[in-house]
Design a protein that fits this description.
Order of helices and strands: HHEEHEHHEHEHEHEH
Strand content: 5-15%
Distance between the termini: 34 Å
Strand order of the largest sheet: 1-7-6-2-5
Helix content: 40-55%
Largest sheet: 5 strands, mixed
Number of strands: 7
Number of helices: 9
CATH topology: Glycerol-3-phosphate (1)-acyltransferase
CATH class: Alpha Beta
Number of domains: 1
Length: 228
C-alpha cells in the first residue's frame, strides 16, 4: 500500500466517522441532508473528483421517487448526493446488513438515514414498514437495483425485483440515474495519484411510471442506450 493510499484511507475513515457522529445527534431530515451532502463533497474533494451531470434538463427539482442507480464503487453514494445538490430530492438509502456493522462505514450508515435490508424472510415486513414511513415523510428512496457492486465488464448486471416492488407498493415514479464513468477505476486512480483530477459523469434518464409492467432492467438500459 502506497503512502497516498494509506493517507486517503485514514482521512476517509476520519470523515466517515466524524460525520457519522454528527448525524447520530441530529434528527432533522433537512439537516441530515445538509450533513450528507457536506460529507459527500468533502470525500470527493479530497480525492480530486468532480461530478458532471448529463441530461440535466431531465432531473426533477422536487418530488418523491425511487431513485435507481448502477453500482461499481463505494464512492457511488457520494457521487449521487453531489449530483442531486441543486434538487430537493432526499431520502434514505437501502443498505445491506454488512454495511451496518462495517468498521469503516457502520456509524455513518446507521445514522445517515438508511434502511437496512435483511434478506431473512422474517425481517422483510419491517423493511417495507420503514420504507412506507419514509415515504409518508415525503422522502424518496435510493437503491442500487443490482443489489451489489458490478465487478464485470458489463454496463450493468442483473436487476433484483426489490426496486420495482418498492415503487409499486408506494406508488412512486422511478428516477433512473446512470453513472457512466467506471467509479471503481476512478477511485483506484485517485488513491494511487494524489495530483490527478478526474471527472465522473452521471446521466439522467426519463422517469419510469410505477405502473409500467416491463422489466425494470430493460427500461433502464433503453433509457441510456446500454447494449449489455
Amino acid at each position: 500500500m502506497g503512502f497516498n493510499t494509506f493517507k486517503q484511507l485514514v482521512y476517509g475513515l476520519y470523515l466517515t466517522n466524524s460525520f457519522g457522529l454528527k448525524l447520530k445527534i441530529n434528527k432533522n431530515p433537512i439537516e441530515k441532508k445538509s450533513l450528507r451532502l457536506s460529507y459527500a463533497k468533502a470525500q470527493l474533494e479530497t480525492l480530486h473528483i468532480t461530478v458532471e451531470i448529463e441530461n440535466r434538463e431531465k432531473l426533477p427539482q422536487h418530488g418523491q421517487y425511487v431513485v435507481v442507480i448502477n453500482h461499481r464503487s463505494i464512492i457511488d453514494p457520494p457521487v449521487v448526493e453531489v449530483a442531486l445538490t441543486q434538487t430537493n430530492i432526499f431520502g434514505p438509502w437501502i443498505a445491506k446488513k454488512e454495511l451496518y456493522h462495517s468498521f469503516f462505514f457502520g456509524l455513518f450508515v446507521r445514522h445517515a438515514g438508511s434502511i437496512l435490508v435483511d434478506r431473512e424472510k422474517n425481517q422483510m415486513r419491517g423493511f417495507f414498514t420503514d420504507i412506507k414511513k419514509a415515504v409518508q415523510e415525503n422522502q424518496s428512496i435510493f437503491i442500487f437495483p443490482e443489489g451489489t457492486r458490478n465487478k464485470t465488464d458489463k454496463s450493468v448486471t442483473t436487476f433484483k425485483e426489490g426496486s420495482r416492488m418498492i415503487a409499486l407498493k408506494n406508488r412512486l415514479p422511478i428516477l433512473p440515474l446512470y453513472i457512466k464513468t467506471n467509479t471503481d477505476k476512478v477511485l483506484k486512480e485517485a488513491l494511487h495519484n494524489s495530483h490527478l483530477h478526474q471527472v465522473i459523469t452521471v446521466s439522467v434518464g426519463d422517469l419510469i411510471a410505477y405502473k409500467d409492467k416491463r422489466p425494470l432492467e430493460e427500461m433502464y438500459k433503453k433509457r441510456f442506450n446500454l447494449k449489455n
